[in-house]
Design goal:
Elements: H1 2-23, E1 38-42, H2 47-58, E2 62-67, H3 70-84, E3 89-93, H4 99-112, E4 118-121, H5 137-159, E5 163-168, H6 180-186, H7 195-219, E6 225-231, H8 245-258, H9 262-265, H10 267-274, E7 285-287, E8 290-292, H11 301-315
Helix pairs in contact: 2-3, 4-5, 5-7, 7-11
Length: 318
């Protein structure tokens, strides 16, 4: 009995140290005041998107909650207002799985809002399916929707410079590969539905985020707009809510112990959006509030340009 108790104490101590060092992570150190600035956060009705919006609103920013589900978006709007005491928080409906919705959102925003200082492309899905435009769901939402949104808002960002674009990616991009033949033929990263295949396509979509940022930084040279991609950490959020019940049963206990909470998970997003002095790192990838090197495939100029050109074609921008 004493031996078991000793083991339990040792395990609890080791677990605490592990969480402090590897799970909790660094915090954004910026004290920047955002009064008079306007920020868009996609997917801000839940998880790290909502906690990011709360932090920005507390700093005085006008925050646009860009969310697909109106009911959940309006509920988040009330939560953010209550948490911050700010009246400068607005909900605008945005379905990244519909290019019509993205164009409508951008048109309404540009008509009603005079500024855009920070665009945070945070929303993401983890499930197979098709968008209303016939694209693979994870490719369409995680990449194409944000690609189009960024392009439609880019002139306003340039007018309000210095400004920033933050693309929330994932460590999973390291496992990603882009099958351009499949994209060209099927408008999707892949067609399988097994657990392994769906995970692979998610990682592929996150590689798209990093390559998009890499190429975007080149296009933005000479402007006052900078861009960054990032891994927020393993987060206890609702991203996997559409996965099968077996996966949810498996990861839920792990999430409760080994994963960051949304506040901890939002810190690298905030760092990329706010930290002064990182402008020369435009196009780079961050994790734990620190710039990181990436594998060659995540900074492949040929692949990044090819993805850009294909994305232009699919969105009708070419």
């Amino acid at each position: 009995m004493c031996t078991l108790l000793l083991y339990a104490v040792v395990f609890a101590g080791a677990a605490y140290i592990f969480r402090q060092i590897f799970v909790k992570g660094k915090r954004c150190k910026s004290q920047l005041n955002l009064t008079g600035k306007t920020v868009i956060v996609t997917g801000s009705n839940t998880g790290i998107g909502k906690t990011t919006a709360i932090d920005l609103a507390k700093r005085g920013a006008r925050v646009i909650l860009a969310c697909r589900n109106e009911q959940r978006g309006l509920s988040a709007l009330e939560e953010v207002k209550k948490a911050t005491g700010s009246s400068q928080v607005v909900f605008m409906q945005l379905n990244l799985g519909s290019m019509k919705s993205v164009r409508s959102f951008a048109e309404t925003f540009l008509k009603n809002e005079s500024r855009l200082d920070i665009l945070i492309n945070n929303a993401g899905v983890y499930m197979q399916g098709r968008t209303s435009d016939g694209l693979g769901l994870m490719f369409g939402v995680n990449h194409i929707g944000h690609f189009l949104l960024t392009h439609l808002l880019l002139d306003r960002l340039k007018q309000c410079g210095p400004s920033r674009i933050v693309n929330v990616s994932s460590l999973g991009h390291n496992f990603g590969n882009i099958d351009f033949d499949c994209l060209t033929t099927h408008n999707a990263l892949g067609l399988g539905t097994s657990f392994k295949e769906v995970f692979q396509y998610y990682c592929d979509s996150k590689l798209c985020n990093v390559l998009f940022t890499h190429e975007l930084a080149k296009k933005l040279q000479g402007t006052q707009v900078t861009c960054y991609s990032l891994h927020p950490g393993a987060i206890k959020t609702e991203l996997a809510r559409n996965t099968n019940s077996l996966m949810q049963l498996t990861i839920t206990p792990l999430m409760a112990f080994f994963f960051k909470n949304p506040v901890q998970g939002s810190q690298t997003t905030l760092h990329c959006a706010l930290q002064q002095g990182i402008e020369h790192l435009s196009g780079r990838y961050f994790s734990n509030c620190t710039v990181r090197d990436v594998y060659p495939k995540a900074k492949d100029d040929v692949a990044a340009k090819r993805l850009w050109e294909l994305s232009e074609k699919l969105t009708g921008l070419a």
